[in-house]
Amino acid sequence: MQKTLILLKPDAVQRRLVGEITRRFEQKGLRLAGLKLVQAPRELAEKHYAVHKGKPFYESLLTFLTSGPTVAMVWEGREAVAACRNLMGVTDGVKAGPGTVRGDLALSVQNNLVHGSDSPENAATEIALWFKPEDLVGYAITDSSWVG
Ligand code: RTP
Ligand code: MG
């Protein structure tokens, strides 16, 4: 089953939206495989957003991601990467559609509450950055008939 890394960024923790956002991933039918609260050091933020190095928003993005604790989660399920990106909405909270995390709860481009891996390959790399293999838990959902 496909896995993806989801981060509830520091604004989600500060705004006390951890429960509200997590509920949406849970109710979608995804399975929680890992969960922790992390005060990201700059080095981790740099590695996580390495693809954006050199862009005008890069330094500000690193300052944001290291400004307070982040909730790191691994979610698993059928096409988990795409399913989570759909739940999140597009980057800019103004443009994100209603019903999405960012569309319902964010107004900013940068402070947009969540990160989600954008491909299964990047998900594997990102999960390895944020989690040790032994931090991930495999278990069966007792009634999995409705989970993809
Ligand atoms: P993410 O990687 O966090 O899931 O977000 P994303 O794919 O929707 O957006 P991406 O282009 O990868 O940008 C990463 C994060 O950088 C911040 N950002 N700021 N000021 C700006 O123009 C700008 N553009 C992007 C956002 O926090 C975005 O989620
Ligand atoms: Mg991205």
TrEMBL record:
GO molecular function, one term: metal ion binding
Catalysed reaction equations from the record: a 2'-deoxyribonucleoside 5'-diphosphate + ATP = a 2'-deoxyribonucleoside 5'-triphosphate + ADP; a ribonucleoside 5'-diphosphate + ATP = a ribonucleoside 5'-triphosphate + ADP; dZDP + ATP = dZTP + ADP
UniProt-listed InterPro entries: NDK-like_dom, NDK-like_dom_sf, Nucleoside_diP_kinase, Nucleoside_diP_kinase_AS
EC number per UniProt: 2.7.4.6
Subcellular location: Cytoplasm
Primary localisation category: cytoplasm
Family label: Belongs to the NDK family.
Annotated protein name in UniProt: Nucleoside diphosphate kinase
Gene: ndk
